[in-house]
Amino acid sequence: MYRNKEAQALGLMAALVVGGIVLVVLTLAVWPRYNLYRMEMSGRAALKEAEWSKQIYIEEARAREAAALMQANARVTLAEAEGKAQMVRARAEGQADIERAKAAAEANRIIGASLKGNDEYLRYVWIKGLQDGNGERIYIPTEAGLPILEAGKGR
Length: 155
What we know:
The chain is mostly helical.
């Protein structure tokens, strides 16, 4: 039995040495391939990251372009709206001017109609205006329709 244990120990020792040698040989054979695989996977990861970064930049550029286009459209729309508002305002102001002119014409017509045949009242208003004047010069036309400019200058 003693021999058997020695043989077993020797066989176990031989198996461990052979297993260690096989393990070292396998490690030396597989390690370069593993490094190559690891570098390839890291390169693929870097390439995918670069592609995604590029896609992100492209999408950001598209978004900036779309935003700029929307801002330009908004400016054009705002300018058109302002132009339309100005046109409406101008039409309203023109209409108001027309209404004021109609009212003034109607007032003048009424005043003109009421002054016909009222020479005494007109003379009264003229005399009243002369009395209210503050040293104003009044030019009275003469025979040729020309005013006497120097007559009665203030002393």
